[in-house]
Specification:
single chain, alpha/beta, 7 strands, binds ligand 0WD, NAD, NAD(P)-bd_dom_sf, lipid metabolism
């Protein structure tokens, strides 16, 4: 039986019940982990609090953390340190790009759109890891979510593909820096899942159809499947793994 009893994990990036972050939270909760949630804007606070309440534990911390703000990140992790003391994991499930940069040609990306997606979708992992390491004093695991569009060209993914490539490289550099503190850093490359963010990617339905037709497992993946792979990365079963990217995509990435 996989257990995370006695471990505390911060889940960042729940927007609603379809969020991959919520799939991860559900798997971690079933394994007995204590959870802390962060949300980006006040608009999402109620959603996240309502979802956290469905887990049936009374003392779940729900904190604001807009990752574009160093002050927010600092305040968030100071509050965690004060109220909880030690944490053992971070699930970083955060990305953003302007809708107009997720269709057409990558060559037309604006400087502003490029920097925005890099800031929220890639740099945020480093900013969060730096703050988190101060409270991960017993070691632990950081898991982020990436996509195949960072490894190869996926139509319309454009600026987000370049942000994911940057995120993927960040995973390797962070793994190298934080390993000496007993902190592992890995990513999961999820297959396409219908979420709020996915709606922004042009032609998303055709990507889902292609997976059903061609992926080795002939089906799309679910939040639960990604959640269970993340659970593995948060447990000691994965204690020898860092700087790695695990594809949870029905095997689609092996196709040429
Ligand atoms: O097909 C998919 N859905 C895939 C998603 C395939 C492979 C990877 N991913 C990745 C995404 O790129 C992202 O990194 O999974 C991660 C989670 O995305 P999701 O579950 O697909 O989407 P969603 O439920 O929309 O959650 C993303 C959240 C934001 O939601 P909204 O919808 O409000 O943009 O990222 C968070 C926010 O909660 N977020 C921020 N968090 C803190 N500060 C910020 C911010 N500035 N901006 C967005």
């Amino acid at each position: 039986m996989i257990s995370l009893s006695g471990k505390t994990v911060v889940v960042m990036g729940v927007a609603n019940h379809r969020s991959i972050a919520w799939g991860i939270a559900t798997s971690l909760h079933k394994a007995g982990a204590k959870l802390i949630f962060t949300y980006a804007t006040e608009r999402l606070e109620k959603n996240v609090r309502d979802l956290a309440n469905t887990l049936g534990s009374e003392d779940i911390l729900v904190l604001p953390c807009d990752v574009t703000s160093d002050e927010d990140i600092y305040k968030c992790f100071s509050t965690i340190k004060e109220k909880v003391g030690v944490i053992h994991g971070i699930a970083h499930c955060i990305a953003f790009a302007n809708k107009e940069d997720l269709s057409g040609e990558f060559v037309d990306t604006s400087r502003e759109g490029f920097l925005l997606s890099q800031n929220i979708s890639a740099f945020s992992l480093t900013a969060v890891a730096r703050a988190a390491k101060e409270v991960m004093v017993e070691g632990g695991s950081i898991v982020t979510l990436t996509y195949l569009g960072g490894e190869r060209v996926v139509r319309n993914y454009n600026v987000m593909g370049v942000a994911k490539a940057s995120l993927d490289a960040s995973v390797r550099y962070l793994a190298n820096d934080l390993g000496k503190h007993g902190i592992r850093v890995n990513s999961i490359s999820a297959g396409p899942i219908r979420t709020l963010s996915a709606k922004g990617v042009g032609g998303f339905n055709s990507i889902l159809n292609e997976i059903e037709e061609k992926a080795p497992l002939r089906k799309n993946v679910t939040q639960e499947e990604v959640g269970d792979a993340a659970l593995f990365l948060f447990t000691d079963l994965s204690r020898g793994i860092t700087g790695e990217n695990i594809h949870v995509d029905s095997g689609y990435h092996i196709l040429g």
